[in-house]
Amino acid sequence: MVGLRDDLRLALDRVAFARRLGVDPDPWQEDLLGSSSDRVLLNCSRQSGKSTMSAVIALHRALYHPGSLILCLAPALRQSQELFGKVAGFYRDLGRPVAPQGERKLSLELENGSRIITLPGSEKTIRGFSGVALLVVDEAARVDDELYFAVRPMLAVSGGSLLMLTTPYGKRGVFYEEWTGASDSWERYEVLASECPRISEEFLEEERAALPSYVYRQEYECSFEETEDQVFTTTMIERAVTSEVTPLFGTG
Length: 252
Ligand SMILES: Nc1ncnc2c1ncn2[C@@H]1O[C@H](COP(=O)(O)OP(=O)(O)OP(=O)(O)O)[C@@H](O)[C@H]1O
Ligand SMILES: [Mg+2]
Prior knowledge:
The chain is an alpha/beta fold. The chain has twelve helices and seven strands. The chain has a seven-stranded mixed beta sheet with strand order 3-4-2-5-6-1-7, with helices on both faces. 37% of the residues are buried. Magnesium ion (MG) binds next to helix 4.
């Protein structure tokens, strides 16, 4: 248990909070934790620590802003379980037990009235929440656009924050659009595997040799590659729809 003075420090300083949870943040993680932006996009390599950061941020919000509703979305149940596991693990590290019921429901209710709810991405389960203080979308590039459109209004009234984190998954979908779009309302972070101190050069060499190059670039180099089911590349399609070329046959 932490004392009052210590608690105040942790409330004001998310980097200190992360350290309290046993996570010594990497430089980009420190920037993220120090940021007060309420619209954040993380385009990160596999295993760079993005889910860990979202768990730290979610728990910090819940602990130090009483009555907060925090929703964490992931595309599939396994990923939401994994994310919830990180949140619950950190909470336990603070000496607070997680009821088995919460574990089953992937939800954590704190005595200050805050709730952290982790959901697998199916739009049907998601409608009905309102007053969301923080929305975390893990593996955002794989989350259906429909789901994203369904959740955004939940932030409207509460003025809640939105954190989307992912490894790229093709030149498609809302995350890709926002990442490459012109909107400056987002704070963007790009983290290559080579920047992660826990991923060795040797490991990356091995992966580079074992994986098709587009998979390597996607998983470790933050690159939005043509999707596997795309027969024509995006550039080919863009060229095909250009108005600069006169059609071979008249259109009317
Ligand atoms: N700053 C850090 N210090 C030490 N370990 C860290 C740090 N950040 C993350 N980790 C560890 O690195 C591993 C990967 O972290 P995490 O699962 O958050 O990454 P991820 O980017 O979500 O990976 P994936 O793409 O597989 O979902 C975990 O074991 C986590 O505890
Ligand atoms: Mg993850």
